[in-house]
Amino acid sequence: MNSLQVGTIQTMIVDRKIETGYVLKTETEEVLLHHNESDMELEADQKVNVFLYVDKKGNKIATTKLPNIQMDIYDWAEVVEVVPNLGVFVDIGTTKEILVSKDDLPLFENVWPQTGDRLYVTLGKDQKNRLLAIPASEGIIFRKFEFTQDAELLNQPVNGTVYHTSREGAAIITEHSYRGFIHHTERKTEPRLGEYVRGRIIEVKPDGTLNISLRPLKQHSMGDDADAILTHLETSGGVIPFSDKSDPEDILGTFNISKSAFKRALGKLMKEGKVEQREGQTYLK
Question: Where does the chain have alpha helices with state H?
């Protein structure tokens, strides 16, 4: 019976030393520990804790460099390489970098993690017994991270890492291990999976989660929004088919801001004499 599972830490006995390393054993199996996978000198009959993985040839290999992440054990892993059409490789704390398959990443590669981003993962295996890093499901996140009813957090700055992203919004884990959600109207661009973001808490919800905004306060964002409208006017021949009566979805789809933010910015530009509205359109003066 094969009792040694890859992706786990096992206690094994040094059976003998060979030219390339050590042969480790249990009652049922032998596994090779290469010299470059050992951070210590070993003696025959010595017990040693090792992490097991499969090399490129399909052989089971041991290493004494033990990872933070194992089968059914979750932790944060840093992205070290992005391979288009394949996935991303993460550092789990051992010598072998592990693939997160594209099947477990967003459909669009522009919101895939980049090098230096972090994913909350465990280990799994493909059909060939090769290790994969598997991002945590919503159910796992629910069990692993905290809820809060602390109303004093309202309007406080908050930082965190995105663990799920979609057109509807992005979910993050904050630095204090709380669960937060960023609605698509509260961001200017869709954050990447694994991206570290900075925002502010705009609601402490009854269920213990946080609503978070990545947008600056209204008085700070008005100038940026006004600049975006001006840029759009300049690239559109001095006229855009938008006014303060336009449909909110059309405004969001074009400027990625809410209708109220659009109206504030438009009002600022009109007060400054830079634009005017006529017959449902806005013109550059």
Answer: 138-144, 218-235, 248-255, 259-271
